[in-house]
Amino acid sequence: MPQPPKRKRDRAATQAALLAAARARFALSGYDATSVRDIARDAGVDPALIFRYFGSKERLFEQAAQSAQDDRDQEAASEDTPEDVPTRLLHAAMRQAPGAEGGHPLAALLLSSGRQDCRERLGARLHDDYVRALTRLVDLPDRELRAELLTAWLLGITVARSLAHTPALSEACVEEISPYFEQVAAVLLGTPPPAAAPGGPSAP
């Protein structure tokens, strides 16, 4: 009895599935604690395909990080006005590792910070995605310090939600955090504070 023809593997779909699985795994466990078998199992493919399509676990990590950066670039390009930047960054910081698709873009770098290349990439990502965008909003002599302070707070939100899973902050939504964030952002960016909503935090 003739055997049915084998289905041709969809290379692009397999690569996309491996990248998605890698982003989620690296964001959940970091580079060292993630194995190629974990990633392949999550993607539903043979581990050998990681080496066929990406060459190594390290190259897969690099491409997964780059795909996250490409997503961030698309988000940044969609911004209408500079005033939208702090809100966009808050939304990015509120992503949670297992809950958000692919995990938080910074979580993999934070969990892999024992590697020098990951520390360097983390510093570059914070500068390019956060500090540089926020510095442009400040018209004061210490604008770099102000931008880095607000970046440090956003990074802390990411760590608390994506890695430490602190209960109150992990359960809060953007709408609950926004009034507090807007007050602090106004102080650091040197902009007029927003009007307090009923029941919201008072201006500092």
UniProtKB/TrEMBL annotation:
The UniProt record lists the keyword tRNA-binding: no
Gene3D superfamilies registered for this protein in UniProt: Tetracycline Repressor, domain 2 (1.10.357.10)
Annotated region described as Disordered, given as residue ranges: 64-84
Entry keyword Phosphoprotein: no
Domain spans labelled HTH tetR-type: 12-72
InterPro entries: Homeodomain-like_sf, HTH-type_TetR-like_transc_reg, HTH_TetR, Tet_transcr_reg_TetR-rel_C_sf, TetR_C_16
Alphabetical keyword list: DNA-binding
A Pfam family hit: TetR_N
DNA-binding region: 35-54
Origin: domain of life: Bacteria
Name this polypeptide is given: TetR/AcrR family transcriptional regulator
Organism whose genome encodes this protein: Streptomyces glaucus
